[in-house]
């Protein structure tokens, strides 16, 4: 959304924007109330979401976040909070490009460097389901593309 506004500002400099150029703004404004509501619900339920994801991941494999004698549960929870917060912001601002380019691709490199692909794959399969349980029927579809992008990049 913000990138699209900036692009429109540059392209329409010295003239009025066309109806076609304004359509993205109309589409965004039509869903603004649901986006804000979804963002607030995710923000307010963040700890519940993280706990539910942990329960679903650890119940079949209690040592999913262990490497040798080290328990990385707290680190993984911190990272999931960051992913969730940035995903919610991407949904709020309708900006998947910023999420992908500014965070997800970098974080995928970290996951691969630490050889955490298996835990990430399972985590980002479970996270969308838990997030959707928090959101209403009008809000969940707004978060679906964000969760799909997150899962495709981090859960590969």
UniProtKB/TrEMBL annotation:
What keywords are annotated for this sequence in UniProt? Bile pigment, Chromophore
| Any single Gene Ontology cellular-component annotation | phycobilisome
Checking InterPro entries in the record gives: Globin-like_sf, Phycobilisome_asu/bsu, Phycobilisome_asu/bsu_sf
The biological processes this protein is annotated with in GO are:
photosynthesis
Top-level division of the source organism's lineage: Bacteria
Per UniProt, what is one Pfam family of this protein?
A: Phycobilisome
Residue ranges annotated as coiled coil are none
Instruction: Tell me its family.
Output: Belongs to the phycobiliprotein family.
Give the protein name, as stated in the record. Allophycocyanin
From which organism does this entry originate?
Parathermosynechococcus lividus PCC 6715
Q: What is the lineage of its organism?
A: Bacteria, Bacillati, Cyanobacteriota, Cyanophyceae, Acaryochloridales
């Amino acid at each position: 959304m913000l990138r699209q506004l900036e692009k429109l500002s540059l392209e329409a400099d010295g003239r009025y924007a066309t109806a076609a150029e304004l359509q993205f703004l109309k589409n965004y404004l039509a869903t603004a109330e649901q986006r804000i509501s979804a963002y607030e619900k995710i923000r307010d339920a963040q700890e519940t979401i993280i706990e539910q994801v942990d329960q679903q991941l650890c119940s079949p494999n209690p040592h999913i976040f262990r490497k040798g004698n080290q328990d990385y549960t707290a680190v993984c929870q911190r990272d999931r909070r960051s992913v969730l917060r940035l995903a919610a912001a991407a949904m709020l601002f309708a900006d998947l490009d910023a999420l992908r380019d500014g965070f997800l691709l970098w974080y995928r490199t970290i996951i691969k460097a630490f050889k955490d692909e298996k835990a990430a794959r399972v985590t980002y399969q479970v996270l969308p389901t838990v997030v959707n349980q928090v959101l209403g029927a009008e809000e969940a579809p707004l978060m679906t593309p964000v969760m799909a992008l997150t899962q495709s990049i981090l859960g590969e």
